[in-house]
Specification:
12 helices, about 290 residues, 3 domains, Arc Repressor Mutant, subunit A, D-Maltodextrin-Binding Protein, domain 2, alpha/beta
Amino acid sequence: MINLELYKIFVIVAQELNITKASEKLNISQPAVTKHIKNLENILEKTLFKRNNKGLELTEIGEKLYQKLKTPIYEIIEIDKEFSKNNNIIIGSHNHLLNIVFGECINEFCLKYPNINLDLKCLETTKMLEMLKNKELDIVFSKKVEEFENQNIKYISLGQLNDIFITNQKSNLAKKIVTIKELENSIIYVPRNYAQTVTRLNKLTNGIKLNLKNSSYNTILEVTSKSDAIGLITKEYVEKEKLEKYNLVELKTELELKPIEFGIYVNLERKKEVDFLIKIIEKNLI
């Protein structure tokens, strides 16, 4: 019996009539495509293609074979796509939360289920929840979004995270409780402007205009270690040793930054593979 893969390659080449385009579509090298076509011709003892000025054209027998094969082969390709999709979990998360909080869970899942692929999308939280609602994402790792409600989405609480102000330990601010007025007169380096941390800060200050500079976590650590600037970070996202390396300390302020809940959002109707991941997460984090 002829290998179905040879027929699949034949159909793609017959559609494109170009080895280069076919190889790109099949994600294999041009020599490999040529070799597979030659193997099929040898097995069938028929010439399926001939060359012309534009590239390739089907012979009469090649055209007959193509017309018989194209519908079933494309149906098989679609089945493959659907099967692969079901063995694929698309995760929405921010890098720090994924790597630091969920990292061990992800590693355990990959070792236990090597045939299930994990894809990551890093977007603004409300965008990720919208994609989850539309089943464009399978699961979202996030701090809890208080105003989000959807009857088809389940939220599973896993714990709490703590947002803190940091500064250089040599700064005069490090030795006192900083007032809101002093915060107003300081440069504060914060995560991206869509981060929930920043949204919470704006609510706490009751409309007071703070001088916020959007930065990456590494930039926040670098700048605050070399100046009197203030940084705002999620404590659990940065190892204690890293804060010590940069000579940074937690800053006490009049603002009460309460712990914030974090967890996972999932569709009530979801792939069984997502439940495998949820079990590992609940075992490790609850």
